[in-house]
């Protein structure tokens, strides 16, 4: 089975912990080598965040569990990259 090297997830999280701390703590999840978070939408109660995680062998279940431990919910998995390396998006004639 090929390994997961990149996950892009849509997460709904409470305001606390703040995005910086949420990202740092999520980055401590086993298998995560790098992480970035982008605030997509903010309302009175919650934040909608796009999170990109990379690593040699990411475990979705571990990532989802960490998000939930921090009070968040994974709404969707928006991108997955698997294999020996990450294939970057490139324009094609269909684009």
What does this structure look like?
By secondary structure, the chain is α+β, with helices and mostly antiparallel strands. The protein has two helices and four strands; from the N terminus they run βαββαβ. The protein has a single domain (4-82), classed as MTH889-like domain (Alpha-Beta Plaits), CATH 3.30.70.1340. It has helices at residues 19-27, 60-69, and strands at residues 4-14, 34-42, 46-54, 73-82. A four-stranded antiparallel beta sheet has the order 2-3-1-4, covered by helices on one side. Strand 2 and strand 3 (46-54) form a beta hairpin. The longest helix is centred in the C-terminal third of the chain and has 10 residues, at 60-69.
């Amino acid at each position: 089975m090929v390994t997961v090297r990149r996950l892009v997830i849509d997460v709904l999280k409470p305001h606390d912990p703040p995005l910086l701390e949420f990202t740092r703590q999520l980055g401590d999840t086993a298998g995560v080598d790098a992480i970035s978070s982008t605030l997509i939408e903010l309302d009175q109660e919650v934040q909608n965040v796009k999170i990109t995680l990379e690593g040699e062998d990411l475990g979705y279940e571990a990532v989802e569990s960490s998000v939930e431990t921090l009070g968040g919910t994974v709404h969707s998995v928006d991108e997955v990259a698997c294999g020996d390396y990450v294939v970057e998006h490139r324009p094609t004639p269909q684009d």
